[in-house]
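Cross-posting from the chemistry board since nobody answered there.

I work mostly on the small-molecule side, so proteins are not my area. We synthesized 2-acetamido-2-deoxy-beta-D-glucopyranose and want a rough idea of how it might sit in this target. Sequence and SMILES are below. Is it possible to get a predicted 3D structure of the two together?
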Amino acid sequence: LQKMRSKQVQNIVAAVALFLSLLMIYSAFKGWSTRSAPVTARSTSAATTAAAAADQFPMINTSSLGQPYYVYPKARTNTSVAVTIVIVVTVGTKMEAFATAMNSIECYAALHGYTVSVEYDNKFTECEVHEDKFFRRHCHTHKLMQNQIKEDDWALFIDGDVGVVNPKRLIDEYLEDGYEIYLFDRFYNWEYAALSYLVKNNARGRGWVEEFSKFEFKLPESFHGTDNGALHPFLMNYLVPETRDPKTRSRTAALCLSLWNRSKGFDDLFGMQACTRMVIGEREHFPEHKVKIYQKGNGWAHDLWIFHSHWATDDFMMHSLKEENFVQFPSDEAGQKHCRDSLLNLVGNGACHVVFPVLKKLNVEKCKAGTEGWLMEGRLQIDNETRKKVYDKMAYRILKQQMELVGKTAAKIQDV
Ligand SMILES: *[C@@H]1O[C@H](CO)[C@@H](O)[C@H](O)[C@H]1NC(C)=O
Ligand SMILES: *[C@@H]1O[C@H](CO)[C@@H](O)[C@H](O)[C@H]1NC(C)=O
Ligand SMILES: *[C@@H]1O[C@H](CO)[C@@H](O)[C@H](O)[C@H]1NC(C)=O
Ligand SMILES: *[C@@H]1O[C@H](CO)[C@@H](O)[C@H](O)[C@H]1NC(C)=O
């Protein structure tokens, strides 16, 4: 019964999460945050200037949309970085639900000489203690690292609905000397993303994944947000170790945990996340823990629908590529222009969610031989500069919402 109930709760959470994320993105596009006072000109930081610049629409010639074209990526020449791409699928889910995404991953890996591990989540008996499928996947990843992946190689965990849109980019590019655990900021809000991480298969990397998986057993009986919610208190504990102990943690850290404990919905959950980020600090590098968290837009994947399926050569992977979500790119010029205009003006438009820009199924044998061409939807391509402008504009809108939510948590501070 307990299991059934938690499954039901999970389904409800998933449904609400989907609805809310759509709502959030919608409100972001609608400029929801502009209802409250904008950052005043008096705080003349570089950020304000950049925010103002980002508020001007990027110039683009919409009548110069490209056409589909082939890209012939070359295999990487230096294969000294060994990576296993780990995909763990809930038993019972049909792999076909992710066919397009996985095809791109398999081709990409075959080309560059990375390993792909796609498995159901019932392989390791040690992971059966996990009732939450999201944490079970991290347990599975930990077991793979222990049993199958070579010491000091790398594991790139990704959701099943992550695919490659730019085969020329390398996982290797994301590695930096002295860092062993890599994450990135989610795009649609101020979350750290649990949908993917890149870790070195050594004691530190394995320890990180194991500890994260075990956070399931520390979930409060509240609207906790499963693994993506838990990633925040977990990272707070990991990066600011004194927050582990009630005796040494700051009042702010105690507030974050108490918010999680009392969470009744997304406002509370997102407030908790914003709170933990305040304790952790908005940094990319945490050298003492060998952790790097890529800022919004600098990570290796984001939800394809956020920018109405547009991509640039600076992009690498995309998330949210479920077969059931795919739509056809509008065939008429007006529809196509509408897609582009929605991107540039950051307004809602479901018509171009989600068009995967790799148009043809890839032949993995040919990928391995380095002879496969990727047929790209050139009409959805934007240049790097436009990408940066659009990303900045969106990121500043979300930053405003994050700051506002931090303010709102003041009402949740309990008098002692
Ligand atoms: C837009 O692109 C078209 C086709 O490339 C070109 O003919 C036109 O002059 C461009 N317009 C502007 C304003 O750059
Ligand atoms: C290959 O890459 C590794 C890791 O980045 C580097 O240490 C090594 O020097 C490279 N080898 C060559 C031949 O460039
Ligand atoms: C969370 O709530 C439980 C009971 O509801 C309480 O025992 C625990 O101390 C709370 N933890 C925090 C961090 O507030
Ligand atoms: C965009 O960036 C990518 C990688 O950062 C680079 O390879 C490419 O040449 C750039 N494209 C343009 C048009 O500047």
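Reply from a structural biologist on the board:
Welcome over. Reading the output above for you: The first helix runs from residue 2 to 29. The radius of gyration is 21 Å. Happy to explain the token format if needed.
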